[in-house]
Amino acid sequence: MRSYFMQGVDGRATLECRDVEAPTPGSGQLLVKMRAASLNRGELIVGHGLLKPGAAKPAGMEGAGEIVAIGPGVNGFSTGDRVMGRCPGAFSEFAVMDAREAIAMPPSLSFEDAAAIPLTFLVVHDMLVLQGHLKAGEWLLVTGISSGVGVASLQLAKEMGAKVIGTSGSAEKIQRLKAHGLDLGLVTRAADFHDAVIQATGGKGVNLVVNTVGGSLFAECVRSMAFEGRLATVGYVDNTLEAKIDIQALHSKRLTLFGVSNKLRTPEQRASGVAPFVRDAMSAIAAGRIKPIIDGVYPFDELPAARARMESNAHLGKIVVTMAGGSK
229-262 burial by CB neighbour count: b if 16+ within 10 A, else e? Predict the structure, then answer.
C-alpha cells in the first residue's frame, strides 16, 4: 500500500510517499481502508512534541473509512462499517485504529466531513466541556479563530448556547465566520484585544479562553478573563513558549489555567473522552447543526500541496486529503 512518512530534518518536517506492507490489526484494533484524512498543523511543526528529529514515522492523525478487518477482543463493529477516528498513519491507503477511538459515522456524513471531525472536535470538546465547563450564555474568546480548532470551537460553543469573540488577522475570514454565529470578530494578530473584549462583555471579561496562538497572546488573554474564568492553551504556532503570568489576577479572580494535549496521555486516557464526545456532540453533527468547515479537498497524491495551503495561512477551517473511493 502507499503511505506517507514524515521526518524531522533541519527543523522542518519532510514528507515522503512509500510503498509498504498493509498493517495487521492487533488486539482491540480495527484495520480501516482509509477514504479521507485531514491535516493538523501541530503534527508538522518540529518541536511541538508530536514530531521529533530522527527516524521517519507514518504521517496523519485522524481520518475516516471502512473497516476491512477486526482484531481480537473487539465488539460492536463489523467489516464494512463506516468509521471515523483518531489514528496514527492516517495518510495511508490502510491504517489501524484503536477500536475505543472509532466512532460510527452517521449515514448523513461524507468521508471528507468525517475526516475533519475526530481529533479536532475531541480536542475542542475537551476544552469547552470536560475541562472548560462552558455554559449557555457565557462568553468564549478564541484567538486565531480561523484555524481548524478555532472554527470547531466556534461551532460547538454556539451549539451550546455560548457567545463567541474571535481574533484573526484576516478581515475576510472574520466576515465569513459571522455567518456561522461569531458574535464579535476582532481583526488583529497582536495582543491588543483586551479593551474590545471588556466592552463587549459589559466590563466583566470572558468566561473561557481558547488560545490557539501561544505565548505572545497569553498575558492579554489573562487580562481579558472574568472572575472564575478559565484559559485553555492548545497551541503555540507563534513559537513563543514562555509568557508572564499576572499572579495577582490569577489569585484575586480565581482563574483556572489548563493545557489540552494528548501526547503524554495513555491510550486509555485518550479513549476516555470519546464516549462523552459522542454523547454531547454527535447528535448535532448527525443532524447537520454542526458541519465541519472544509477549506479544500486534495487527492492523496497532492498531500504536499495540501500542506503548502495550510502553511500559507490562507485557509479557513480544515484541509482534507481523499483516497480512492472518497465521499459517501
Answer: bbbbbbbbbbeeeebeeeeeeeeebebbbeebeb
8 and 137 inside one domain? no
The sign of the dihedral angle between the CA atoms of 8, 13, 19, 21 is positive
Closest CA to 73 of 38, 28, 110: 28
Calpha distance 93→188 (Å, rounded): 40
Helix (H) or strand (E) segment spanning residue 194: helix 194-200
CATH of the domain at 146: 3.90.180.10
From the list 23, 107, 103, the residue with the least C-alpha distance to 69 is 23
The position carrying cell 521526518 is 7
**Residues 57, 21 share a domain:** yes
Q: Into how many domains does the chain fold? A: 2
Do 42 and 108 fall into the same domain? yes
- Measured distance CA(87)–CA(137) in Å, rounded: 35
pLDDT tens string, the chain, 328 residues long: the values are 999 999 877 767 889 999 999 999 999 999 999 999 999 988 876 544 445 566 788 999 999 999 999 999 999 999 999 999 999 999 999 999 999 999 999 999 999 999 999 999 999 999 999 999 999 999 999 999 999 999 999 999 999 999 999 999 999 999 999 999 999 999 999 999 999 999 999 999 999 999 999 999 999 999 999 999 999 999 898 999 999 999 999 999 999 999 999 889 999 999 999 999 999 999 999 999 999 999 999 999 999 999 999 989 899 999 999 997 555 4
Let me know if residue 61 belongs to a domain: yes
Q: Of 225, 209, 119, 135, which is closest to residue 166 (Cα–Cα)? A: 209
